[in-house]
Design a protein that fits this description.
Blueprint: H1 6-29
């Protein structure tokens, strides 16, 4: 069964993993997000309850 022979598949997996981790990943991580998270605390709005006409 050729699936159990790790000789060609291990090299392919190793090359693709090294390509991803050394070339593609730093290029993707260099992009700045368009909407960076902020440290501001959310403000709560003071609302008044709705007065229903039939109550």
């Amino acid at each position: 069964m050729p699936q159990l022979n790790p000789s060609p598949w291990f090299f392919i997996m190793l090359t693709s993993w090294l390509t991803y981790s050394l070339i593609i990943q730093p290029k993707l991580l260099s992009f700045v997000t368009a909407n960076p998270p902020s440290n501001k605390t959310p403000t709560t709005l003071s609302t008044t309850p709705w007065t229903w006409p039939w109550t």
